[in-house]
Amino acid sequence: MRSHARPALLAAGWAVSAALVLVAPGNLVMRLAFGKLDDPALVSQSLLAVLGVLLALAVIRFGTRTASPSHGRRADGTVRPASWARAVTWTAAGLPVLGFSIPHLLWGLGVPLGVAGDSRAGLAALHGSAVFWALLVAGPVIGGLLTLGLIGRWGQVVPEWVPFVRGRRVPRGLAVVPAAAVGMLVGQYGAMMTKCLAFGITRTCAPHGGTEVLDGSWGFAATYPVFLLWGVAMLAATAGYLHTTGRRTPAASHPRPRP
Known about the structure:
Layout: H1 5-23, H2 28-33, H3 41-65, H4 83-108, H5 119-125, H6 130-147, H7 172-199, H8 201-204, H9 218-221, H10 223-245, H11 250-253
């Protein structure tokens, strides 16, 4: 295949699959989260999301099969991820820390970064909830560390310090399913809320009010695009993991445990 055709096909495939997975399903995540399973739009939204996932898998397979031969194999049988896979994985790991953990850490410490009006009083009322703030800050950090497993050795081969299964190959589904699920959840939520912010959140997402918390508080509003970018980066990191692990040779697929 000509060199200029492959990137164009990959870009088109990724754009369409991202639109189907993150934008077309609308508020599918919220409906599932609140148990609104009787909504007539649920079936069509779910089908769009499934179609997007299937298209993404086809794009990954196409990209893997048409990629140039890689010689980035390590001595333990694992494969070095491509540069783009490392870049999107680090992005997926760092975005929630920079865009969510740090602002919430500042708010928990009483620094009203990007918070105005009555929202400051709401933050002050939560200053005594140390567990609440600790969970908000630590959650994305822990998630970011786990995300780095998509490009690390321990994401392909079980580390030596793990008893009984040390040195065995990590099942792809064990890494792919949680990463893809998180990417879809946060990405769909971020896409929905970013669209609401762009076109008027009170009219499209909260017709009965309740958006006064965003009045003049750009710090709160800015977290919504962070969720969207986080979801996109997380799905891209998942695709990078599939691309990396799909290039393992049969001999390298089952590394021999060390004595």
